[in-house]
TrEMBL record:
Subcellular location, principal: secreted
Assembly behavior: Monomer.
Organism: Mycena sanguinolenta
Localization in the cell: Secreted
Protein name (database record): Phytase A
Keywords, comma-separated and alphabetical: Disulfide bond, Glycoprotein, Hydrolase, Secreted, Signal
Amino acid sequence: MLRTFGAVWTALSSFLSLAPLPKFSPAHELAHDTFKLQQSWGVYSPYHAAEHYIPPPADCEISQVNILHRHGARLPTEHQTKDIHSGVKKLQSAEYYTDSRLDFLETFEYSLGENLLVPLGAIQSAESGKAAFQRYSSLITEDDIPFVRASGMSRVVETAKNWSAGFAAASDYTYTPKLSVIFDEAGLDPLQDDLCPNASGSHKEMSQWLAVYGPPITARLNSWAPGANLVDEDIHGLMMLCAFHTVASVPYEYNEGSPLPFSPFCSLFKPSEFEAFEYSSDLDKYYSTGYGARVGRVQGVGYVNELLARLTGSPVSDHTSTNSTLDSDPATFPLNHTIYADFTHDSIVVAAFATIGLFPTHKLSTTHPKAQRDWLASEIIPFSGRMVVEKLTCDRHDASDSYIRILVNEVLQPLAFCGAKKHGPWKGLCQFDAFLDSQEYARNDGNGDWEECF
Ligand SMILES: *[C@@H]1O[C@H](CO)[C@@H](O)[C@H](O)[C@H]1NC(C)=O
Ligand SMILES: *[C@@H]1O[C@H](CO)[C@@H](O)[C@H](O)[C@H]1NC(C)=O
Ligand SMILES: *[C@@H]1O[C@H](CO)[C@@H](O)[C@H](O)[C@H]1NC(C)=O
Ligand SMILES: *[C@@H]1O[C@H](CO)[C@@H](O)[C@H](O)[C@H]1NC(C)=O
């Protein structure tokens, strides 16, 4: 849930300029459960945690924390902007509207811009940094503050900086993490999402699903805007616009717990249609860098091998996307910190899930979604989504032993693949060595998959 941004806002407001407050028409039909709706925008959902964080068992202490963090809410990419424009232009070309929900288009001017982090993305990233400080403050000393890296794209870098600012503000500026590594986008970078040119993407699967859910929506909007001649592809763009326009319009002074002010584009669609839209995100991630991609999850191997290096305190062993110059230098890849935070894109976080073995999922149908599924993009990789790997030292049976547990957006993962218990206080904990053994795919550099990228 969206929490109090007060303290962080006070700290941030000094260096953030205010965005203008948009005027919205009420999203009448949709008002019934706005939070739920915002959480059905797939990878375009604002951050929300499905559960509350549960501390480790009483006999355990956290000895290391690794955070892999998606950038916060952003503007559409160039490619998405084209799709969005197409639908907006067609709707605006209609001579008249038969439904008042389209009336706002008579004066609407599209002006979102591209790619950048938006205020909500900055706020939610700062909030994440604040939460990290509060949760792990006992692990922090003046000599040992989080080591922070980011992939080179602006929105990722800004997310890392806002996270660090939120962390610093929460500590009353006693601890101010620096962004120590910004990867050059032209080089090897385990946090970059375009290093595998032969990856096939998910266009085919998303189109198959669009052909199922799109036509009734296309027909309805065409009947509301005679002459617009929308096609199914435009529907995907317009539904994305509901999410992008909403997150882009949230002002910096956005307030705790209140639902976001909806873009009027949202009122063009029904909740059940957003569920279908959410599934297109599930398919997108599953067939891009998830389990459904021929060369997908291998893009997470570089990060996971770095994670294993930190967990074991030994040099990185990897022949995929990592930069060996950076990783062999203690200034750019130290092994003596307690908290590490890495900022990246959704595709890489998803690839890391699939490399590690999280959310194991059989083939997703492109025509018949299962109502109950673990692979739910809105929950596993919303804007500012994060995976946290905690290393624990636990006293058990008169001996001290190391364990691993993993949280994704606060949800404790079952880790069945390394023998974690399903119930009780030790739920979700794997013995350290069992976890390392389970990471064979990463340790084998992706079993030859990386070579297929080129
Ligand atoms: C890690 O090692 C470096 C180089 O020896 C040292 O400068 C730094 O203070 C150490 N950091 C921590 C957190 O121990
Ligand atoms: C936070 O993000 C915003 C939006 O991208 C940016 O303007 C601001 O400089 C960032 N804050 C810091 C501390 O870098
Ligand atoms: C590794 O990183 C360094 C420092 O950014 C850069 O100069 C070098 O080109 C990178 N190497 C590769 C193979 O990308
Ligand atoms: C990768 O793509 C290139 C260019 O299309 C092609 O020549 C090459 O065979 C592909 N490699 C693999 C392993 O599929």
